[in-house]
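Data card: per-record layout.
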Amino acid sequence: MKKAIVVGAGLAGSYIAYTLGQKGYAVQVFEKRSDPRKSVYGSGRSINLVVSDRGWTAFKYAGIEAEIRKITVPAYGRQIHDLEGNQSYFPYSIEGKAIHSISRSELNQTLVELAEENPAISVQFEHFCTHIDFELGEVTFDHKGDSVRERADLIIGADGTGSAVRGAMMKQPRFNFTQEYIDSGYKEVHIPAATDGSPQLNLDALHIWPRREFMLMGLANTDNGFTGTVFAPFTGAYGLDQLKTGKDGLRYFEKYFKNAIPLIPNLEEQWENNPTSALAIIRCKPYHWGTKTALIGDAAHATVPFYGEGMNGSLEDARVFCELLDEWGHENLPTVMERYTELRVPAGNALVDLSLRNFIEMRDLVADPEFQLRKRIEQKVQKNHPDKWT
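The structure for this 390-residue chain is written out next.
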């Protein structure tokens, strides 16, 4: 039985572990964080996610689409909240297509549990990757002060933006890497369901409070609550660096998101206690090193969460890699690695570019009457000429 090591038990890591297990690999997954089922995983800085066609294609490929659909909430359009509290609804398509909101932590736990149902897959937490020998296929971890060394026929680096696997690749000659932090960051606030359990906002929509340089966004959860996320610059009069206390946050909402205040009963407490997080863009090339090691997800192409495709692109990485294994077989792993880089580097770069472009649209343009008119015209054209406009 071929052995695979997956570094990182996040979304991409747990997904590819599950899929490799289906293909007959003995898979060891090593995650630096603690078990999400025993702690609040990423509390205060998770950002709700959206499953798009790329994600559903990956889930279908793995045969787990039905399990994932159970923990999503569909959104059929954007609900725009202007400064005066007026609301406008814009459907995503005339055919009633939806995007699907999902909790990162709930999806992560589901994928880990699905993987662990296979006795050939083990998931070990609190293991920090400290060294990789690419030629031998050997990975060294630190586990509570003890050194753990494992060898495998295949190594997958799915360990996120601060990837240790990518860090080891960066020490090799002719490995290209860039990292850039954007000027904006984010802070989350939780919008609970009403006291009777009903939703306080329209569940069928992605809610946006666009304010040119910044915005509040709300995505539905399965408990009828919403995860609200403020995206804003760090600097300036109302930059996140200036909004330190709960009272600062309340004044900020009173000025720019007034109709959201009644939805968040403990706004001041949340604002003061929830972390403010930065957003980084990472590009690298190649996505593999040697003949045994590949990067997937944020380890290869971290992006900003404004196109709704970061997770989906990560899952697509894993699916494409596994499809290449289907096509070429493990005995041709060097070819699989080369083809994977050829296919996914352009896709990863495009994902970053589109995410930045969509940030401008969501933050600035959705509140613009001309942009709203253009969207209505697009829908008319789509309705009358579906063969020429999708």
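Known properties of this structure: Residues 205 and 312 are 20 Å apart (CA to CA). Residues 41-45 have pLDDT under 50 and may be disordered.

See the next section for split statistics.
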